[in-house]
Specification:
Chain lengths: 625, 625
């Protein structure tokens, strides 16, 4: 041991004790929280923040700063205590933990400048850490990413998706730490203190593993040293710890998960913790922090994206236009990266891979880590486009929820939406994807109907700050817009209108072609309808919809290639409700089945014929065939 | 090798060849499908169906019959071919594959009597298989469960959740087979033919593993024999195979995933396959099948459930009433089983564990396998109640989607819904759960506001065939119903009404107390409102809502502890739209944050004060405070 280290260790131990005290105080003040989950990781946190990581507490977003993600987000109080000890903000703020007026929430969110992604839904932080580590490669930085997991958390499947991908991508700039404190929320964890169970798993998944006593500061520092020296694979430090470490009446005891100390318990706890402070070791915590090298970085500027190049009336699937648009975008903009889950030949993102293979990340069939990595990439300045069949994005629903909480700048594209995919059957049909993304109040939801609008909307999605979902279709649809047509987020297109329109049909995606066919058929029998392409589902153009409603006697019909809940119809209904208008909906109302696309549009009530019948019935005129 | 086996092997090989031919023919006839994914598993399927498994093709639901779940659902054509060869239906039906009129869909669904759960979203079948294996214990049967996975599929995290739980539960009646055919959809899999990668993982997770050549029939039969002899842990047979096995122009070749042969390719393929038929081995496939022992089973009858026992005006959290109701239910009904994901002390299902520990299954922090196991249990006659915090059920969204497709008889309960959980913050708040379950057209969605209705609705949920979701709250709410009050799925309760009501406030869960308080405050200032407790969100009582709308001048206000999309407000709006009524909504419209429950109801616009203001503003009277 060097003499530096000999003096460092008692200082770090004192910092750890102080972090325990701060975590106990803040949770008691809040009246809730997880102090014992903080205690088990206190030594690890002290070593990470005040010896291992290079960062500037005043400028956490510095591109070359090391990252720390607290995957076990319920230990938030010690994360906050560590940043306060580092000097990021005043320690007195800690006592506002969990108050409505404070950003020191029950679980960490990026409302705090030093938090990259919201955690608190377990098994997600490690996926985001992969994105952070991939970003270091993108910007050619040597920053390292650290992520701390709970042992109970390791039962989440997403952890093992991450384990596979990180090993496959040889992410030696990624260091995980598992806080093996033996106790879950309601009972001991699956593997308790059997460290071999953890070690065997991580080794089998291709990681370097280091098993340590998580309360032995020298061992912790050695482990970080070793992890830093390993090349070609990520490291998982498996730290055996005690939940509640340092306070004898809770240490290793059941039934203390998620419980703050009562006032008298707090005093007892602090008294005991204070006895553990090594005397004669004055601690200037901020002075211990290693700063990253100051470096000038000028990210290559984005080039203009070429205009679309289609012919009106041609037939092109929006998923294919997406692939082409993405290939152009990734070529033009060095911040754009692309993530796939082994469907790139169906989503056409293989074209983007060809255009920029170094910014294309293959996750194989593992949608959770794909979206999680996108979250991490976005937090570090990349603009990630993650795509798969829309129904399989649903596998990552909880990641999407957390991305919304973190307001991450991710772009999700779901192809093969709706019954219009045909023969593959219901398991491959996304019918809930708009409900999933539309439910999140800060998601932009786009649903192009043709190739031109797809290309334009992909470009807009990249520019728009915040989470965006783009819904794409499998069948070829007509090119209905000129290449110089412009689109806006929150807009719509009135694609057919006349002064005599008796009703407005609001379509999107594949149903726009159906609405246009219905328009032709009705016109042949002397009935005019207005047709709207609702390419922006959220935000929705309330004024545009109200204007159409007023112009067509309040007769609004939506045509939706998805279940009736949470999609186009609900968005329109909510938008026009205050105007006193109601909406007649054509949507999928039962579990669909295999068949030809056109048969299914007919069978499930969203074909041109159904639109004609709905108009006819609403208007009360003689049926037009 | 016994002489029996010596004659069996060529017969099985001939069956395998015939299964390949049938899979090729049916997919070409359909014009789409995955013949090469069928070819790789043909030898495995032949051995399973015609040597290993005990079943009666005419009575697939026999309680003591072995089960086969095709986790890689895209190989559906060979599953159908195997059942046809077994005599379950006429082989000519195979040529209707993927047609609208046929139940032989692109991916398997329980529309077919021999399919337990819908597959086609990868990584789910193995989770369902755990449920099937657990059910064998429940009914004390020695039936075995077999599940066949793809190698690409093994990247899904849910597979490793299943691996943990099956090993932990010592499910030696479960046998997995991984068809390691090396090729994914868009490229080679992560591990290709490196069998050690698979073996290390499964061994680390505690499984018995057997690596074989998946085209060596003797090795396959030996592996099944060995698996049957292992006690105390599940077995994974890792079968090295070739995608497209048997047809030289596709065998082991890239770019053949999910492609049916063209007519001329089919002829070439069949010609080549026919040369592989061992001559002089007449095959009577159905005669080879081993039947399960005929056994009389009389399941113990369900006993009556005691009535609730609360006092009007007491304060009880619905999550706690749920735990008590479940404890009574599991005691009364031997078909009821309970699944947890390490939150049983917060959902109060630990009370059900105490009541019937042998029907309580702990999944630790792994929500996907919890819901997947519930699917498998339900397919075998159990009535599974799976519960966790409602926001974490979202982790299993794609399983819930597939459970809807399979119309599985699962009961999901999500506790801690909405902003009313308070200090833990947004990561722990379910605000999209109603959108998730409500989007599925065959889900029953219940949302009780008090303890009595909770108990009654839990009992109704158990009786109702099909998927049910019950939304539960963290805070204590008033007991507002007498213990003998009756409830119906699809009903609502008018809890306050008078002839002078100027508006109807439709609340649910925690917002019923808020609406009742608003009712009191408005009454004090001379304004009467109707208050509805919408405890059944799907189906919704359309007539009841329309009647209230008509009685209160069309003034409807919903108060929703969730995001505005896909929940109570959308359900009400859709129900009353045809009556020409619109709805004024109070719901959460931004990402929430930590704070006290009552502060959050206020901040996010769903408190009594907001209801009073909304009524006042709608009615246009002077503000009542």
């Amino acid at each position: 041991m060097t003499s530096d280290r000999a003096s460092l260790i008692p200082a770090l131990k004192n910092i750890a004790t102080q972090l325990r005290i701060d975590s106990a105080r803040s949770t008691t003040q809040a009246g809730s929280g997880h102090p014992t989950s903080c205690f088990s990781m206190a030594d690890l946190a002290a070593a990470l923040f005040f010896s291992e990581m290079r960062f500037d507490p005043q400028r956490p977003h510095e591109p070359d700063a090391d990252r720390f993600i607290l995957s076990k987000g319920h230990a938030a109080p010690i994360l906050y205590a560590a940043w306060a000890a580092a000097g990021a903000f005043d320690r007195s703020e800690l006592l506002k933990l969990r108050e409505l007026g404070s950003d020191l929430e029950g679980h960490p969110t990026p409302r705090l400048p030093f938090v990259d992604v919201a955690t608190g839904s377990l098994g997600q932080g490690i996926c985001a850490a992969i994105g952070s580590a991939l970003n270091a490669r993108r910007i050619q930085s040597d920053y390292r990413t650290y992520v701390l997991l709970g042992d109970g958390e390791s039962a989440e499947g997403s952890v093992w998706e991450a384990a596979n991908v990180a090993a496959r991508d040889r992410l030696d700039n990624l260091c995980g730490i598992t806080d093996v404190n033996r106790l879950g929320q309601s009972q001991p964890t699956m593997w308790q203190h059997d460290m071999g169970q953890f070690e065997r798993r991580w080794q089998a998944f291709g990681w370097n593993t280091i098993v340590i006593d998580g309360h032995d500061m020298a061992a912790i520092l050695d482990a970080f040293d070793q992890a830093r020296s390993v090349t070609g694979r990520p490291t998982m430090i498996l730290a055996r710890t005690e939940k509640g470490k340092g306070v004898s009446f809770v240490e290793g005891k059941d039934n203390w998960h998620g419980k703050a100390f009562k006032k008298d318990e707090l005093e007892k706890a602090i008294t005991e913790l204070e006895t553990q402070i090594v005397p004669g070791v004055p601690v200037n915590a901020p002075a211990l922090i290693r700063k990253p090298e100051a470096r000038q970085r000028a990210e290559a500027a984005s080039k203009p994206i070429p205009a679309p190049n289609y012919k009106l009336g041609d037939h092109v699937a929006t998923r294919e236009a997406f692939g082409d648009a993405l290939a152009r975008l990734v070529t033009a903009n060095p911040r754009v990266v692309v993530l796939d889950a082994d469907v790139k030949n169906s989503t056409y993102t293989d074209r983007a891979e060809k255009a920029a293979s170094d910014r294309f990340y293959e996750n194989f069939i593992a949608e959770q880590v794909m979206v999680g990595a996108a979250m991490g990439l976005s937090a570090r300045g990349a603009i990630p486009f993650a795509s798969t069949f829309a129904c399989f994005l649903y596998r990552a629903a909880d990641f999407i929820r957390m991305a919304a909480i973190g307001s991450n700048n991710i772009k999700l594209a779901g192809t093969h939406a709706g019954v219009s995919i045909g023969e593959d059957g219901p398991s491959q049909m996304a019918l809930e994807d708009l409900a999933m993304c539309g439910a999140e109040p800060n998601f932009t939801v786009l649903y192009p109907s043709d190739a031109v609008s797809t290309e334009r909307l992909i470009a807009l999605a990249a520019e728009k700050q915040g989470p965006v979902y783009i819904r794409l279709s499998r069948p070829k649809t007509s090119v209905i817009y000129a290449n110089d047509e412009t689109f806006t987020i929150g807009g719509l297109k009135v694609v057919k209108e006349s002064a005599d329109d008796v009703a407005t049909v609001i379509a999107a995606g594949v149903t726009v072609d159906q609405a246009l066919e219905a328009h032709e058929r009705l016109k042949a029998s002397g009935t005019s309808i207005r047709v709207i392409d609702l390419y922006s589902v959220a935000p929705v153009d309330r004024e545009g919809l109200l204007a159409a409603a007023r112009a067509t006697k309040g007769r609004l019909i939506t045509v939706e290639d998805h279940y009736s809940t949470g999609g186009v119809g609900d968005a329109v209904a909510e938008a026009v409700a205050d105007g006193g208008f109601t909406v007649h909906r054509l949507a999928v109302t039962e579990i669909p089945r295999s068949g030809k696309p056109e048969e299914l549009l007919e069978r499930f009530g969203i074909s041109a014929t159904h639109i004609v019948n709905a108009v006819t019935s609403l208007v009360g005129t003689v049926a037009a065939r």
